[in-house]
Task: inverse folding
């Protein structure tokens, strides 16, 4: 992300269904080496889509959406591993992703058996 935007990413704000997993959010913080912030209301994606639809049909104007981010307190997940452990875990992750490529034999038609 930092390479794409050309600026350092100091923290990551998350929402949506998977963000409800505290374990996953801690793993994210550890592997990224950044603070991960999760709002109390994790359904901000759905609410944002609803607000965007309301703006599109003229129900609200951009100036009326000051309450969009008023979703309560945020929980912070702080990195809890050192750089050496982070590098080792990232190397293992990359290796796992690499091994996941090309492991499925393409289907040669219905009823064919895979070897």
Result:
């Amino acid at each position: 992300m930092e390479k794409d935007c050309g600026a350092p990413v100091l923290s990551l704000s998350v929402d949506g269904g998977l963000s409800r997993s505290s374990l996953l959010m801690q793993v994210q913080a550890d592997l990224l080496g950044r603070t991960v912030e999760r709002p109390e209301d994790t359904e901000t994606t759905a609410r944002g889509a609803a607000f965007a639809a309301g703006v599109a049909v003229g129900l609200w104007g951009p100036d009326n959406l000051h309450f969009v981010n008023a979703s309560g307190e945020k929980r912070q997940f702080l990195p809890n591993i050192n750089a050496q452990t982070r590098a080792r875990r990232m190397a293992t992750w990359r290796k796992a992703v690499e091994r996941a490529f090309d492991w499925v034999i393409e289907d040669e038609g219905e009823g064919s058996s895979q070897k």
Q: What stands out?
A: The chain is about 40% helix and 10% strand.
